[in-house]
Amino acid sequence: MVCMKFPTSPDILPPRGHPAKRQSIIDAAAAVFCREGFAGANIDLVAAEAGVSRQTVYNHHGDKEKLFAAVVADITERCNARAFTVLSTFPDNPEDLEADLTVFAMRLNKGCIWGRDGRFLAKLIHAEGERHPELFETWRREGPGRVWSALAARFARLAFAGHLDIDDPDLAARQFLALVNVDLHIPWLFGETLSEEEQSASAARAVRTFLRAYGRKCEAAADALEEAHQA
Amino acid sequence: MVCMKFPTSPDILPPRGHPAKRQSIIDAAAAVFCREGFAGANIDLVAAEAGVSRQTVYNHHGDKEKLFAAVVADITERCNARAFTVLSTFPDNPEDLEADLTVFAMRLNKGCIWGRDGRFLAKLIHAEGERHPELFETWRREGPGRVWSALAARFARLAFAGHLDIDDPDLAARQFLALVNVDLHIPWLFGETLSEEEQSASAARAVRTFLRAYGRKCEAAADALEEAHQA
DNA sequence: GACGAATTAGACAAGAATGTCTAAAAAATT
DNA sequence: AATTTTTTAGACATTCTTGTCTAATTCGTC
């Protein structure tokens, strides 16, 4: 075997050393940056948490700022990938639309918002988004941009199939995500966790409201007439 | 006049020196803490931004952590006060419910979320909420707790008066706030501003969806029937 | 086993920030 | 005007952090 491991891209410098070590540094750095903020993060702490010497951190990433940028890029990528994975489980042919959407909403929460990467990314954006917006341009373009469109497309298809009554699928997608987050936001801020039941109940409430707004009007009318008859 | 300026509460140490200077220090500290985070904030910079010598900062607040706590307390109070001010403009006797709620939503945004204090408080919570939750206990109790209840009470009254159809007013209030924020969140993260028209359009979209979910069912039914007839 | 690359521990200089102290200046009060 | 309080500028010791350098050591590969 020849020693040229990266024959195709000699300009993109190959990650020197063990990729595993490189990744463990990024993971540790992500945790530390999120806990302490950029200024408060300590390279020694990152090294210790990664089980690596400080010099190795510098060897791999050269600089605190470069390390931060690498962390952002890494988490952005993982987060977007996960978002699309969850999105691929959207109920395109729902049996019970309300139940299926509720399960989907829970997956969305657990996978993207409540998960480790989601928390990290959100904290990083809040902390440094205003100061270094260029670091998050990729996220904005590939993240919300594409995810919202994709989700909107799914809703549009449901509407076309007669399961929903939607004027503006993009708006519906954004509002769906917002509703799904309603009860999770405050506990999220303080690092608290919700039990499975609470999460599920919250998702159910969000979906119920969403369907009240975007469910087929015929059904809503039928419900209303039925109630009116009973009254 | 006797020299006892604070006869009722001798234990709560009176703010020494000019209150104006004290406030300007807190304002400057708030700005710096929000920009740079707690660890990155520099007392010299706070002093300079407040137009005060560094020693004066220490005289007034003793310590970086105490200064931070004072900032949090101050902003919390102002933010909550403003929230209740806006809340007092809730349309209790709406002429045009949709229009009135839209205007109310815009006031809410401009006053509480988009305003200086709101931004500051949110950033502080995001940055330090997980590490120092005790600092924000007051906010949680007096802020979301009371504001949500108050808003829920207003919605309940509207429902009682026959303008809305709401099962759970607390939930409706939380969802209203979430919907109102949908389009503002991302630009907010990066310090961007929305034009008056965009804000107003966003509020209108939020209110329209809210009313589709919580408007009187009779109206929804009437709409549906009308459409059915036309079809 | 031998070679080269990667890693480690630790020392090190340079810079920055906190919090204290002092003497002089400014402001307010009487 | 005299006095007391507050503010100021600057020096200062201390601590912490970054980023570099070096020599020793480990690891992977041939």
Structural domain tally of chain A: 2
Structural class of chain A: mainly alpha
Share of helical residues of chain A: over 70%
Write the H/E string of chain A, N to C.
Answer: HHHHHHHHHHH
* Strand-residue proportion of chain A: under 5%
The CATH architecture of the largest domain in chain A is Orthogonal Bundle
Can you give the mean pLDDT of chain A? 89
- Termini separation of chain A comes to 83 Å
Low-confidence stretches of chain A: 1-14
Oligomer state of the chains in this structure: homodimer
CATH class descriptor of the largest domain in chain A: Mainly Alpha
**Form type of chain A:** elongated
Which fold name corresponds to the CATH topology of the largest domain in chain A? Tetracycline Repressor, domain 2
Radius of gyration of chain A: 22 Å
CATH superfamily placement of the largest domain in chain A:
Tetracycline Repressor, domain 2
- Count of DSSP H/I helices of chain A: 11
Question: How would you portray this structure in words?
Answer:
Two copies of one chain form a homodimer. The first copy, chain A, is mostly helical. Chain A has two domains: 15-62, Arc Repressor Mutant, subunit A; 76-230, Orthogonal Bundle (Tetracycline Repressor, domain 2). Chain A contains eleven helices and no strands.
